[in-house]
Every structure is written in structure tokens, then in C-alpha cells.
Amino acid sequence: MIQNWFEETLYDHWRQSFRVTREITRIKGPMQDIALFETPGFGRVLTLDGVIQVTTGDEFIYHEMLAHVPVYAHGAVRSVCVVGGGDGGMLRELLKHRSVERAVLVEIDAAVVDFCRQHLPSVSDGAFDDPRTAIVIADGIEYMARCREKFDLIVIDSTDPIGPGGVLFTEPFYKDCARCLTPDGIVVNQNGVPFLQGEEITDTWKRRRPHYADVSYYLAAVPTYVGGFMALGWASASTRARTESSETIRARFAAAPVATRYYTPDIHKASFALPPYIREYIGK
Ligand code: SAM
Hints:
CATH topology of the largest domain: Rossmann fold
Helix content: 25-40%
Structural class: alpha/beta
CATH class of the largest domain: Alpha Beta
Bound molecules: S-adenosylmethionine
């Protein structure tokens, strides 16, 4: 923090700063340092080890796109697993769907869940206490290796591939996720900002291709994840869900709508269009 500015330095050639009106609280957790600031423009900003996880201003974009695109593409999601996601925002969006009967949250750091329950309740908005929710405190890679349950949707809402989140970008983890999916099941994940982290697209592609017939990406523009579009990873045993027609997605949304501020059926379809500069990273 420099004179009421919080600086996030993810790259050696670029960083971003937020003016801070108040530091709300900061704790040294057993796994990660957790801090919460109040900022003009972005609202409350949650950081883990100095890296932004969520801002109350723009989290809706990220959470809506990782939740609603696969749910409407699949068409009948009943069971979901969120790996990471300790702030509860992903659970909140997934549980908007009445079809969802069971949502398992696998978070490595109990301190994040406790901290967010206490200081950031608007993000989970009651989702931790929803009767459909089960919270498991465990490393996602170990949980998935032991898991005998099948999910219609696995959402990997992880930190970047450094620190504890690193294992959630590995081939053994993707292989176990494939085993824990129902036949039409889908895996999505946050896959970085291609303009700055293009190798994440290449690596995920290579590590998923052996285990899924359909591996792809879709895009969302999230202001705090700077550098242009953010890539959201997609993997499934078939292309059916990803290639559902616009009419089908519109009909599913009309039949079972949820309140959104970013997601629409048109944005759903458009988000799979990849510019050539991003396509270049696929199959490298
Ligand atoms: N939207 C966020 C982003 O990309 O900046 C991700 C938010 S969410 C808070 C990320 C969560 O993943 C953190 O709470 C972190 O503790 C959790 N996490 C990191 N590595 C994990 C692992 N191996 N297993 C389960 N959870 C993990």
C-alpha cells in the first residue's frame, strides 16, 4: 500500500493501482494473507497474498459467466461442484437455478470462507447456508482424486496457477475431473487473461485434450482482471452443450430465467467467438 493506493503487481512490466478510502481488515491466515479494502469505483476489494480475488463492483461479470453459460448450455444441471470459490459468489449464481439440487464447495482455505462470511456477506448472499450447499475444506486435487460422485458441472473458481492454485491447472486434476462428470457434464475454469497469460491457454489445452472430446474457451471482459478479455476454459465429453443453437439457449433462459447484469443468451453465444490472437495460443 503506497499513500492510500493499493498496487497489484502480477507482471514485471505492468501493474494496476486502486485508490483506497479505508482498509477494512487484514489477517494473516494459516495459508494465505487475506485483506479487504474499500475503494471508490470498485467497492470492496478482497485480496489473497496481495492478488485481487473479488471486487464487489465487478464480481458479477466473472461469476455470472462461469455459472450461467455452462448451466444453460447443459440444460439440466442438478449437481455442481465448485473448486475454490471461497468467497461464495459462484455458489450464489449457481444456486439461482432451481434445477440445482446439490452444490459442493471444495475450498482449501477455511479462513477465506470465514472471512468472507463475516466481512463480505453480499457476495455469497446466503449461499453458504442454502440447504443444497455442502462445504468441504480440502485441496481440490486431493478431493477430486478420491471423489466417487459424478457432477453435471464442475466450476474451477481458483486463484492463478501460483501457490495453492497451481495444482488446479495440472493434467492429473483435469483427468480426475473428467472421471467425476456425468456423461453430458461440463468443466469450466478461470483461465487467465490471454493477452498477458497466453501460455495458460496453451497449457490448459494440452493438458485437457487427452481427457475430453471437446476443449474450448469462451470470453468475458472483467475490469479488474486487466489486459483485455479473460479466458474461461471449457471441457466436456461432447460438443453438444457448447454448440447448442441460439434458439435453444434463448428458450432455456425464457423457461427458467435468473436475474443477471452481464449474462444474456446473446452474450452466451457470442462469448465463444475467439479473436485470432487468442486462437493462436491453442494447439501451440
Ligand atoms: N475470482 C477469483 C480470481 O480468479 O481471482 C478466484 C476467487 S476464489 C476466492 C479462489 C479460491 O481458490 C481461494 O479462496 C483459494 O483459497 C482457493 N484455492 C486455491 N487453491 C486451491 C486448491 N488447491 N483447492 C481448493 N481451493 C483452492
